[in-house]
Amino acid sequence: xxxxxxxxxxxxxxxIQAGMVWCxxxxxxxxxxxxxxxxxxxxxxxxxxxxxxxxxxAKQATKFPFGINVPLLYPEVDKLMDIIINEQVKIIFxxxxxxxxxxxxxxxxxxxxxxxVANTKFAKKAEEAGVxxxxxxxxxxxxxxxxxxxxxxxxxPLIKAITTLPIIAAGGIATGRGMLAGMALGADGVQIGSRFxxxxxxxxxxxxxxxxxxxGEGGTRLSMRKLVPVRLIKNKFAEDLDAAxxxxxxxxxxxxxxxxxxxxxxxxxxxxxxxxxxxxQVASIINEIKSAKEIVDEIIEEYLFARxxxxxxxxxx
Length: 317
Known about the structure:
2 domains, eight-stranded parallel sheet
């Protein structure tokens, strides 16, 4: 498959594995890259020295391109960027912050930059900053989300109408048919997170992986609207958050309830009651833990079958 995304990143398939906190270390990123997609190391849950170790291990594990996802609001973002530049990583996905702060610096170091957005306003800002591509992430996605709550099916055409940059669809995509839908709406590739959480190579705790495949329809909800909206699996912690929000507790109270370790506690340490379990709505159709290669192969096989099936149909008007 050749298109703007495969050519931009020099990969076989226009599939990007999202750089998820606590779930996407070097093992998952390299496995996805070896399978023909683009693997991303999620730097948002790593100390700078930890990120450096993951980059070096990824280099040993794959000869194919891989990248790093960096939330720009990370406290030590300058140290992360120094490591990425010094280690000569060639692809970075930025999120949760102003893309103009780092894009020029990164591009001057020969790095391709992609920024994650949830609305047209920030898509325009990303293009003005000089990024190479945009991830358009809809309301269905796991983890931190846009305040507008715009779904992927609505967001892709909106962003397609205001930019000529390559677009990567994200949010609610876990299958080949989902990939085809995103591409039909104008995306040049897809970014997939939740499906890769439930992979053998994911660094998520086994308890969390098992909970993902148990999560059915309606099993997630958007919480913490007073802070930064985040989609979570419904559990005791999520219920406590919702109860606090429903009685008008302050943002400060919610920050204290959230604390500093909730995501690690849930996703990395496997506490299914008190931990923060970030996952997308698409968890409801994930029912098996597989290797990253099996996941990529199944997505491509289904995408090609669905595309050919559609093209063979005859319509009478």
